[in-house]
Structures are given as C-alpha cells and as structure tokens.
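Per reviewer request, we include the raw input and output of the structure prediction for the construct analysed in the revised manuscript.
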Amino acid sequence: MSRIHGAMIGVLGLMSVVPLSLAAQRRVPDQTAIDAYYATVGQAFPVSSDEVGILAEWPLQPDEIVVVLFIAGAAGASPDAVASLRSSGASWASILRTYSVGAAALRIPFPEGTLLGPLEETYRTFSATPRSYWGSIDLSDRVVIALVNIRILARQVGVTVSRVLRTWDGEGGFVLVHERITR
C-alpha cells in the first residue's frame, strides 16, 4: 500500500469519528423541549395553548413565536398578521416599524457590569443614541429574537435576565436555553 493511499484511509477513518463542523455538534431540540418552550411562552401572553399551536404551524423558527406574540401584544394586532408578515420574508426590524413598536420596547435594562457578549454592539448603539431616537435603531433579526426571548424567559422561569443571556451567549436557539434554565 502506498503512503498516500494509507494516509487517505487514515483521514477518512478520522472523518468518520470527528464531526466536520461545530454545527454537527449542536444539539437539536426534540419535540418535548419545543412543547415545554411553547407552554412557557403561552403562559406569558393572554393566548390559549391552541393559539400557540396554530402559530407553530407558520414557517417560523420555534423561538420566533414569542416575538410574534410580543409584537402583537405591544401593537394590539393579530398574532396571525404578524406571523404572516414574518413568513413572507419581512425582517423583524421592518415588522417592528410596521406596528410602531420601537427598539425601546425591546431594550432590557441589564444590571451594571453584565457581560453582554453578543449584545455588546447593540447596547453600545443604545448608549450612543439619545433615547428619543431609539425608534430609529434597526435591530437585526438575531438581536430582536434574543431580546424578546431573554425578557420573556427570565420573567416566566423566574431567573435573571443575566442568567438567560449567559446561558444563550449567542449560541443556539432559545428552546435549548429554556431547557437548560428549567432543569
């Protein structure tokens, strides 16, 4: 056997044991974890579990359902209307503008000294922008999803916003964060 052939066999063997990417190592939530997350989210808003189930049928990520309910509640709009806009491709920033829900409604007053990690840049923008202009801040989809989930999960589970942020730290979805903080 040539050295090249032997090396190729060794690499192929190693590839079958070691995942090729971090994405391959991420845990995907099972249906039980998703259902538990939906139950917690449903308790945060005046909607039935049936309504949460209907929203879950929209082509949205599970951790976007809470954003739909948050915006609908803040704007006095139908959750289905918000979900429809999102599923048609609208960004969360655009949907927030459509329903006149400003970034100030999403901003969380983290305790002094909290390491903001993936939210650091967003909070620098808040600090550098006069409060009266916070409505002009365009938040990324990821930041909108994070801020709403951190706020709602902390309140519903009874933990600090700092703990939810630390548990998430920019990695993975909030269904898994919910699972970790409720263990």
